[in-house]
Amino acid sequence: MVDSILQKSRVRIDFSRYREDNVITEYCPIKTVYVNQLAANNPLEDRWNVGFVQVDGVVSSFLFSVIDGHSGPACSHTVAWALLDYLGASLLKAQKVSAVLEQLENYPPNQPYHIARRLDFVGEDGRRGYAASPPASQMRAFMKQSLKSYLKYIESKGDRDIDPVACLTEACLRLDTDLCSLGHENGGADLKPAEFFSDKVLNRDLLHVLLSGAVGTAGRIFWHNADTVQNQTPDIDLHIANVGDCAAALFSATDGVLVGEMLTRPHQPAVNVEEAQRLAAEHPHEPIGSILRNGGRLLGELAPSRAFGDVRYKWPADRILELIRHMGVEAPTRGTVMTSGPWAGLQPLPEPYLSPPYLTARPEISVLNLTPDKKFLVLATDGLWDVVSVKDASKALSNLQPDECPATTLLKMALTTMPPQMAKVLNSTGELDESLKMRHAASLLSLPPGVARYYRDDITVMVVELTQPN
């Protein structure tokens, strides 16, 4: 039962067909990409995406993301759709930015344009699909215009140093600013609250995005093609950008043993003391015990301290209250509890709310070289990493059988791993045989989405299998 359920949602993207079609060269270090997902929420709030950067016919970059939404899927859906294009734009050289803008201007207005070309795949049901489906038409048009504005901003800077840390940081922050702007130029920073919501018809799709939020891990694998390597072994670079509590791990073969290392740190003050220290430094006139409450949650509510969207923790107080009034929600005053709308059960403002923004989409960036010993890159939402350690993941990846999907294997491991206290109830040593583990997994899978969220989280796992370029 467990295996048959998990196999239904697995995805395999074989890069050999891109080599055969001359889309990528032999210098690309990627063999296969595997993805699997399991919903706990209804609907699933996780998203993922992959794509090539192909501006002038030459592909030398692979972009990827795993996104975990909260308070609904609106923000995660849009971030997964747009983030790769923003990352790709930020890393373009000046002459290529102009070429992309020209293509964007000439592209049919009713069709999406992507700097990161989406990769299609064939699912288990035999149907061809794409990782990230487009958002609603208004939202799609808004993101296309926002990307165009970002490209013009990059073009205005002229020749610049393509520093991956600066570029990826700028891309994440720019996307978040655009998402939280409600369509107003420059985020509407100079508008009064009443003016900010004066449009007779607000973009409801965008409204849903900023009322929800998303964390994510994204990145880029970059390789040099034949015109740059000149018969030398090409350098292969990996850039990882992390916002929130998704995570990426890299697995290397050392003396025949697969060893993993985490490339990211969770932006959760409850487990990351540096995040708590950052918040204390950014809000020096507020006690850190007021900012972090209920087990280290931001303003007592939000577990991650970095995220896209979530204007409830970013906007000025008067603008949030005006937003609530605009939605027609009752009790939009401090100290009362809202009885309807997406924030029902919460006060209109978190308390205390003295010096926003408290939340940021500023990523932490990891930059490293992919040497021949690197075998797997794993990205996953916290639904995996909360129960599966890097050491356990290394063991699972070391024992893969031919044609076994590593993303499904890790997903299954998450379901068969019991919390230590629960395991000791069944066995005093805490050691469980395979039958007990499978019964535990089957019981979790028997819960319908929506109910399952009270027992486990949405889980998305992406595994990039690496190979030595020819």
Short account of what is shown:
The chain contains 17 helices and 17 strands. By secondary structure, the protein is of the alpha+beta class.
Descriptive notes:
Helix 3 (74-90) packs antiparallel against helix 6. The protein contains 17 helices and 17 strands. It has one domain: PPM-type phosphatase domain (Phosphatase 2c, domain 1, 4-Layer Sandwich). It is 34% helix and 22% strand. Strands 3, 4, 5, 8, 9, 14 and 15 form a 7-stranded antiparallel beta sheet that branches. Strands 1-2-17-16-10-11 form a 6-stranded antiparallel beta sheet.
For the record, give the distance between the C-alpha atoms at the N and C termini, rounded to a whole number.
41 Å
Note the beta-strand portion. 15-25%
| Helix percent band | 25-40%
Compute the number of helices: 17
Q: Which structural class do the helices and strands define? A: alpha+beta
Contiguous low-pLDDT stretches (5 residues minimum) are 422-426
The coarse silhouette is globular
Give the SSE map:
Layout: H1 2-7, E1 11-14, H2 16-20, E2 30-38, E3 46-54, E4 59-70, H3 74-90, H4 94-106, E5 116-118, E6 120-122, E7 128-130, H5 137-156, H6 164-179, H7 193-196, H8 204-211, E8 213-223, H9 226-229, E9 236-243, E10 247-254, E11 257-262, H10 273-282, H11 288-291, E12 292-293, E13 297-298, E14 308-309, H12 317-326, E15 364-369, E16 374-380, H13 382-385, H14 390-398, H15 406-416, H16 420-426, H17 434-445, E17 459-466
